[in-house]
Structure formats: C-alpha cells, structure tokens
Design a protein that fits this description.
6 strands
C-alpha cells in the first residue's frame, strides 16, 4: 500500500476492523518512512454483471456512478455517506443474486426508485426527476401523487 503523503511502499498495519456486515476491512496504517498514519478499506471484489444501456451499449458495473447519483439526490439532506454506501451495498447484493452475466441498466434504476423513498422522500423526487426524465410538470406531479399514495398505504 502506497503512503498518500510520501508515496513510500513501506508501512505497517496498526489496527484492523471489520464493518458490521463483515464485508469491508478497515485498516489503520503507519508509514515507516514519514510516520504519517492513514486508513485503507478492503472490499471483496466479485465479478459483477455487465450493464446493458438503453441504446444497447454494454458497460461494466461502476459503483461510483450510482454513489455520485445518490449523493446528488441526497445533497443538503440529512443522509450520511454511510447510509448511501449501505444503500449501494444492497443494490450490489441484488446484482450478485441475479446470477446473470448481463443486466439491463433500467433494472438497477428501478431498484433505486423502489427503495430510495424509504431512505429520503426528497432524494427520491430528485432522483426520479432525472431518472424518469419528466417532460412537463404533469408527469412530475403524477410521480408525487404515486409517492403520496404509497405513503398513505403504509
């Protein structure tokens, strides 16, 4: 592991911990060259399916793309980065469970839409406005009505 301060490869692990789900290892490290401390995270890399876009293009799964989209939707909302990471972890688990080599990107968008309102309703509306590409206010209002009806049923 390269030190982010001096770029030395000589460092030692001071402390290691697993997250709650035992899926990520957090390691606290100390650089032997400059004595600076830094943290690294290890995540098991699994073979994820390729996403098939609406236009037929195929792209590899990129966790960061969905994280960035959710961060934009959750901007200025009381949603922690940890909550977003857990949300994306759940999407990745679903992707792995599908067991297919290719998955339409629309499926992932729908999974996000299905669960985002539970995380934050304002973030849901923001994400929906981009994902659904509303053409006018009527479509936007229809989505809000559906959200309110689902909320009343709970």
């Amino acid at each position: 592991m390269k030190c982010p301060y001096c770029e030395s490869l000589d460092n030692k692990v001071i402390d290691s911990r697993l997250n709650k789900d035992c899926t990520i290892t957090r390691r606290r490290r100390s650089c032997l060259a400059c004595d600076q401390r830094f943290t690294t995270y290890e995540r098991l890399e699994l073979m994820m399916p390729v996403l098939v876009k609406k236009d037929g293009r195929r792209e590899p799964w990129d966790r960061q793309k969905i994280v960035v989209g959710l961060e934009k939707a959750c901007e200025k909302r009381p949603i922690s980065r940890d909550a977003i990471d857990l949300f994306v972890d759940e999407i990745e688990r679903k992707l792995q469970d599908v067991g297919s080599k290719e998955v339409p990107s629309a499926v992932i968008g729908e999974w996000v839409m299905e669960n985002l309102s539970d995380l934050d309703e304002v973030a849901y509306v923001r994400f929906a406005s981009v994902y659904r590409q509303f053409k006018d206010v009527t479509e936007f209002m229809d989505e809000l009505k559906m959200l309110l009806e689902a909320r009343e049923k709970e």
